[in-house]
Design goal:
transferase; Spore Coat Polysaccharide Biosynthesis Protein SpsA, Chain A; glycosyltransferase activity; 494 residues; EC 2.4.1.-; 2 domains; transmembrane helix; 9 helices
């Protein structure tokens, strides 16, 4: 039996070998047939003679073989880590690579007058905390009208408006004020910024980066801009919008404030990732009517600054629209400015016109407690219509928001400005306030978590009182929206 098994295995092995040889033979025949077929399609003028083949083969045989390259000789490293010096001391060396943060990141630059400019950007926070970077500005005219051929240079005055809140980067506003009018003949030119580290980071190594920050084309500078009447009575500068925002809450907010500020108002919205498709559909009717400007600033997310670089964003807005608005407001899209029924926003700001800035008192509202009367109907109610319980804690300091006359500011913050000409007042109680619905703008589900029928309640250790101020005017706002843009947003969902 063993002999038969061995014979059987030998037969199988031989068969496999013959099969492999047969497969190779058939493949070769197929290749030859293919070549023969292709020759039928080659023009008759194309021939290959035996002499041609011999010439080709001779050339190949005459080509000298390429010698193998010798291995590269080892080189001494240019990096020195340590060496022995006198007194048998080991001197250690430090070898820097790359950079942890950029020296300066420009967002924008604007004129502040005939001889002054503002440059807005980011810079390394450690550089400003532990170093002393400096700035210099140069104006380069397109047509040299300077008879002395001297450079038009001035020192830049840096302002850090984010109160140290920065992360890797901090916000810097550089003011460049020259002794004389710049581009007075309207021939055009460009503004250059020189940002020097001044030994920050590496005390033995100073780096100065040169960058072009603003260009003025010939004949385009309007010298009357700085003294002319502003285009808008009120302009809203919004902070960075990010995350999965609730389109219904945005819808309510914009309709409410367009009615409040009136036809001579404008709203600048900054999209840091929060204006997704549904939110854009809510803003679109107001963009078409000229009330809203939407700016895509998503690229700022590359640079790690405080709260999506909102200090940089509001400073850009301040200087971009500085001469286009009489009053500029700074607050968020979960906050609602309110003035008493017998007042208007114009009468309020007129009564405060002696001040360059005034702050606004906060009314903190619960984002969870609603009236039991709204049971089964909360999903149809607008946010400020159903959230009617106000935080009743007294004796604490609450955040305030603010408004300014922008022509008097050099830089600004989120809750107020510390860099301005003129006075500030905080005594605005009874004249203007704002209702704050914290967290509702990013909530895509029903906000009401507790339905009650009481004028007072303590919820999650916080006392609340019933306040229907905003609820009472919800119907007016809905009618206003319908009048302005029709029913196109009636099917908006949270």
């Amino acid at each position: 039996m063993a002999i038969k098994d061995r014979e059987k295995k030998l037969f199988v092995s031989s068969s496999r070998n013959y099969a492999a040889e047969l497969k190779f033979l058939l493949t070769s025949l197929l290749l030859l047939c293919t070549i023969a077929t292709l020759f039928h399609f080659i023009p008759s003028s194309f021939t290959i003679s035996a002499s041609d083949l011999r010439l080709c083969i001779s050339r190949i045989s005459q080509t000298p073989p390429t010698p193998l390259s010798p291995p590269p000789s080892p080189q001494a490293s240019s990096i020195i880590h340590e060496k022995l010096i006198t007194n048998n001391t080991i001197k250690r060396f430090f070898n820097p690579y790359g950079s942890a943060a950029y020296n300066f990141i420009t967002m924008s630059a604007y004129r502040g007058g005939l001889n002054t400019f503002a440059i807005i950007g980011l810079s390394s926070k450690p550089l400003h905390v532990y170093g002393n970077p400096s700035y210099e500005c140069e104006w380069i005219p397109y047509t040299n009208t300077n008879s002395s051929l001297e450079k038009i240079i001035t020192n830049g005055y840096k302002i850090l408006p984010d109160w140290g809140y920065g992360h890797v980067y901090t916000v810097v506003v550089v003011n460049c004020t020259f002794n004389d009018t710049i581009n007075g003949e309207n021939n055009g030119g460009k503004l250059m910024l020189y940002a020097s580290t001044s030994g920050g980071g590496d005390r033995s190594f100073n780096v100065t980066d040169k960058m072009e920050v603003l260009v003025e084309q010939p004949k385009l500078l309007d010298h009357t801009l700085f003294d002319s009447k502003p285009k808008f009575e009120f302009l809203y500068c919004g902070s960075s919008l990010y995350g999965n925002l609730n389109p219904q809450r945005v819808r309510e907010w914009i309709a409410y404030h367009v009615r409040l500020f009136g036809p001579k108002s404008h709203f600048v919205i900054h999209d840091a990732g929060g204006v997704h498709e549904e939110v854009f559909e809510v803003l679109k009717p107001w963009i078409e009517l000229g009330y809203v400007t939407l700016q895509d600033i998503r690229d700022e997310e590359r640079f790690d600054g405080y709260y999506h670089n909102q200090f940089m964003v509001v400073n850009d807005c301040l200087h971009r629209y500085k001469f286009m608005a009489k009053w500029m407001f700074f607050f968020d899209v979960d906050e609602y400015i309110y003035v008493p029924p017998k007042s208007t926003i114009k009468t309020v700001v007129d009564s405060l016109s002696d001040y360059s800035q005034f702050t606004i008192e906060q009314m903190a509202m619960s984002s969870k407690v609603c009236l039991s009367h709204d049971y089964g109907k909360t999903y149809r109610k607008w946010g400020f219509e159903k959230l009617v319980y106000r935080d009743a804690i007294t004796g604490i300091r609450r955040d305030r928001k603010y408004a300014v006359q922008p022509r008097n500011l050099y830089a600004t913050g989120v809750h107020m400005s510390e860099n301005l000409d003129g006075n500030t007042t905080h005594k605005t109680e009874g004249r203007i306030k704002y209702f704050h619905y914290h967290g509702t703008i990013a909530q895509r589900r029903e906000t009401c978590k507790l339905l009650v029928n009481s004028t007072k309640i303590t919820y999650e250790k916080t006392p609340y009182v019933l306040d229907t101020t905003m609820r009472d005017i919800a119907g007016v706002i809905k009618k206003f929206e319908l009048k302005m843009i029709g029913s196109r947003l009636q099917n908006t969902r949270q």
